[in-house]
Every structure is written in structure tokens, then in C-alpha cells.
């Protein structure tokens, strides 16, 4: 009998996965070049449906062409940039040495320069331009704005200097290309000296106060409103005095909001929808149009009942005077 011994040898191979190199966003970006994105484009009724950046989601973008050179760093009024709530950059652009930085992006609507906000990333590129890592807006109609910045004024040295300096006007700073004058966000420095809210504007800024407070004579300090005789006590509708104090009141069909100064339409929040009941006599001579077909509106003898689905984008109530 023969006995055969079999030896098994094992070859151990260790495989280390090679991760793909991250691309430099300065060379791997998507261009946003639509003319309606520019801050000079004001939304008109015949423009059709407002723009909504629900396709912008987590990529790097650069503003080019008629859209502008970069995002504006000052408050943009509603119904600009082709949409209802334009999105602007609330903070200065970085320098090239700063690398990738985070900034707050604000959407303006209903007189509030930052009614909605989210965080985006910005990088200054060697070519003197910027790229932005933009996130998808939470609701419609929101769209990111582009802006054309001014070229600096070259100081004429009359032959007394070899390298003429580039000068920017007050409220602007020289960009990384050494030619473009970018808006300076004064609110980043000590909140602009404002005691409460600082709003950056084009080449300037302004101070604001919370509900129920008013700016003092210095234009920066907020003071309590004393009684109904001072700007109606900060009330959106009626103000009634009670001795040394006062109280805001609302017309029938409206209720006071949490700030105790603003009247709002009562609404019922559900898990996937919001239901609003508007008294007909409150609407008066206005017509209410639902521009989104996914919403439902029912009118009875006393109220207009509107149903807003939270699963669809673009719910807008358009109120027009007869």
C-alpha cells in the first residue's frame, strides 16, 4: 500500500484598494450661465413659472456667461434672479490661500433678506474666479444668483511708479484677480456695529431690530417701542393701550403669531400637509390663484380652504387686486 501525502501551499495576496484622487473643483465644475440668474434680471408676470434650483444638489458650480462672475454678497430683493426668493452669499469671498471655506447662503423673501438659509462651500481659484459647492434649496421657488462685479480703477501715477495700483470704491475690496472689485460684507466685522441685526447691502449695510423694537437715533442701537403712538407699537394691525403697556390685536379670522406683534392666518399642520382657512371677508376684493396644480382650494359661503401638500415643490398663493 502506498501512502501519498499531499501538501497544499497557500498564496496569500493582500489587495489594497486604490481610492480615486479627488478632483480639484477649480477644474471640475458645472457652469451656471442662464441670463435670468443675474441680479439685474427682475421677474415679470409674462416670464412664466419662476425658476427653482431643485436640480442643484451637492456639485461644484461656477457662474459664467450672462449669469455673472460670482455670487452676490449683498441682499437681493425678492422677485429677482428669475425667481421669487433669490439666494445670495452672506459673507465675503475667500482668498486663494484660504482653500475651501464655508459660508451662509440666504434666500430673500417678504422683506426678509435671510428668511431661509443653508450652508455652502466656496473656493477661490488660480484663474481669479470662484467655484461653489451648492446644496439643493429646501423649498421652491428658490434659485442661486450671479452678479457682474465692477472692474477697479487704475491709479494713474503720471510715470512716478512702475506698478500702478488698482483702487476700489468704498464698500468694495479687490478680488483675487487683482482687477475685480468685490462687495465688502461689513456685517462680518463686529456685526457692523449693529446691536441686533446687520444686513449687508451693495457697497453698504444697514442695521435692523427684532419685532417690537426700533432703531435709535444712532442708526445702530435698538430700543423698545413705548406704546401704540410709536410706529403702532410694532403691531401689524391694531394696537390697543392698557395704561403703561399695550397689546397687539388682530381682525376676525387672524391670530397673533409667536412674536405677539404679527397677525397671521390660522393653519393646521399635518404630517404631510398644511391646511389654511381664510375668511372670505378678509380677502375682500382680492382673487386667490393657486399656481401649482398639486394644491387644492375649496371655497364655501364663509371661508376659502386651501390644502398645501408638503411632498410637492412650488406651492405659491398669488393674490391680485381686482
From TrEMBL:
Keywords: Disulfide bond, EGF-like domain, Repeat, Signal. Pfam families: D8C_UMOD, FXa_inhibition. Residues 183-223 form the EGF-like domain. Residues 1-20 form the signal peptide. InterPro entries: D8C_UMOD/GP2/OIT3-like, EGF, EGF-like_Ca-bd_dom, EGF-type_Asp/Asn_hydroxyl_site, EGF_Ca-bd_CS, Growth_fac_rcpt_cys_sf. The keyword Ion transport does not apply. GO terms for molecular function: calcium ion binding. This is Oncoprotein induced transcript 3. It comes from Vombatus ursinus.
Amino acid at each position: 500500500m502506498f501512502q501519498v501525502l499531499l501538501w497544499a501551499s497557500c498564496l496569500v495576496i493582500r489587495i489594497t484598494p486604490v481610492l480615486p484622487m479627488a478632483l480639484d473643483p477649480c477644474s471640475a465644475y458645472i457652469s451656471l450661465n442662464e441670463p435670468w440668474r443675474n441680479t439685474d434680471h427682475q421677474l415679470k408676470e409674462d416670464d412664466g413659472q419662476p425658476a427653482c434650483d431643485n436640480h442643484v444638489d451637492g456639485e461644484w458650480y461656477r457662474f459664467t456667461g450672462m449669469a455673472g462672475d460670482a455670487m452676490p454678497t449683498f441682499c437681493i430683493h425678492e422677485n429677482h434672479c428669475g425667481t421669487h426668493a433669490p439666494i445670495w452669499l452672506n459673507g465675503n469671498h475667500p482668498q486663494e490661500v484660504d482653500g475651501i471655506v464655508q459660508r451662509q447662503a440666504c434666500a430673500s423673501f417678504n422683506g426678509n433678506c435671510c428668511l431661509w438659509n443653508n450652508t455652502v462651500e466656496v473656493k477661490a481659484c488660480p484663474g481669479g474666479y470662484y467655484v461653489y459647492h451648492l446644496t439643493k434649496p429646501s423649498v421652491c421657488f428658490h434659485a442661486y444668483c450671479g452678479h457682474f462685479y465692477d472692474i477697479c480703477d487704475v491709479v494713474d501715477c503720471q510715470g512716478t511708479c512702475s506698478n500702478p495700483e488698482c483702487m476700489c470704491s468704498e464698500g468694495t475690496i479687490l478680488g483675487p484677480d487683482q482687477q475685480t472689485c468685490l462687495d465688502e460684507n461689513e456685517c462680518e466685522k463686529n456685526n457692523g456695529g449693529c446691536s441686533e441685526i446687520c444686513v449687508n447691502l451693495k457697497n453698504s449695510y444697514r442695521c435692523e431690530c427684532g419685532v417690537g423694537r426700533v432703531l435709535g437715533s444712532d442708526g445702530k442701537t435698538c430700543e423698545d417701542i413705548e406704546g401704540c403712538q410709536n410706529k403702532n407699537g410694532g403691531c401689524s394691525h391694531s394696537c390697543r393701550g392698557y395704561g403703561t403697556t399695550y397689546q397687539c390685536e388682530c381682525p376676525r379670522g387672524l391670530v397673533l403669531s409667536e412674536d405677539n406683534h404679527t397677525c397671521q392666518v390660522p393653519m393646521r399642520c399635518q404630517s404631510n400637509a398644511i391646511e389654511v382657512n381664510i375668511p372670505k371677508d378678509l380677502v375682500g376684493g382680492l382673487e386667490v390663484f393657486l399656481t401649482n396644480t398639486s394644491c387644492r382650494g375649496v371655497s364655501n359661503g364663509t371661508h376659502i380652504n386651501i390644502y398645501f401638500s408638503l411632498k410637492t415643490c412650488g406651492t405659491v398663493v398669488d393674490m391680485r387686486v381686482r
